[in-house]
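Before we proceed, please read the two lines closing this message. Let me know whether the structure tokens fit the sequence:

…
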Amino acid sequence: MTRHRGCWLGLVLLVCLPLPAAGQELPKATPEGKKAAEELIQACVADGGLKQIGEGPKATWQADPMKVRATLAARKERLTPEVRDALIAAYGRVAFDPDRGGERTK
């Protein structure tokens, strides 16, 4: 009986393993969206919400969430779907770039 219970448990665990699945495509960034996103990022840097640590491809960013939130709240009208798409597309390139520690690149 115990042997069968162990087999069933193993079968259940095997079925529950995460399988590769297709997800949504990342949005495409428009030139206007890229420009507006860059302006918002520069505003966050100027207001002290984002600070670059290091130089070159190994550089990282330190964020102060309260300052970033204040900067974005002051520029609420600039938070358009085009900006959102540009930021998501940029995140997708960086997060999945093997040269930057990601798993895959598009």
